[in-house]
Specification:
six-stranded antiparallel beta barrel, 10 strands, single chain, 44% strand, 167 residues, two-stranded antiparallel sheet, mainly beta, globular
């Protein structure tokens, strides 16, 4: 059953499907980074100053008086919402384009291995592309009990931090 939030989806997350190590025909070892998951999400940015779930300046003022990245500054925000559906894509797929109806999506109705906390992702929120880190991918009840009822109906709760350094 598709999530009722799907028509309001405003974010996408691209996650490396596997960082397995392989050996090519010449014996060289490499990381296979050709396959990704794209996750369609409904997210909300937390924008409160002075609390831990709000904005954090990058670089911090304690890091060389805020001039650690000379000529650059930005904010890191906390994003909360739901992972609604996902599809597997190749690395050369333009996942930021408006129309992605050519993909075959699967409803996110349970905890997925690729949505593990501390996984680094690319995050598209509206039209803003940023690097993100998954902070939590389970509901208030840890993925069991009531969460098992909510996941198939709405989607899996997803929380991440995302930042874009601007010039």
């Amino acid at each position: 059953m598709a999530s009722p939030l799907l028509e309001f989806a405003n974010a996408r997350v691209r996650i490396l499907a596997s960082n397995s190590v392989e050996r090519d025909i010449n014996g060289r070892i490499f990381t296979n980074d050709n396959a990704y998951y794209i996750v369609v999400c409904y997210m909300k940015r937390s924008q409160y100053s002075g609390v831990t779930s709000g904005s954090r300046k990058i670089p911090l003022s304690s890091e060389l008086n805020g001039e650690m990245l000379s000529g650059a500054s930005g904010d890191e925000f906390y994003y909360r919402g739901y992972a609604l559906e996902y599809a597997q894509i190749l690395s050369n797929y333009d996942w930021k384009k408006q129309d992605i109806s050519d993909l075959v999506f699967t409803d996110t109705d349970g905890t997925e291995d690729f949505l593990r906390p501390q996984k680094e992702v690319e995050f598209l929120f509206g039209s803003e592309l940023m690097r993100g880190i998954i902070q939590r991918s389970s509901g208030t009840f840890g993925g069991v009990g009531i969460d098992e009822i909510i996941y198939p109906s709405i989607g899996v709760e997803l929380q991440l931090t995302g930042s874009q350094v601007l010039n």
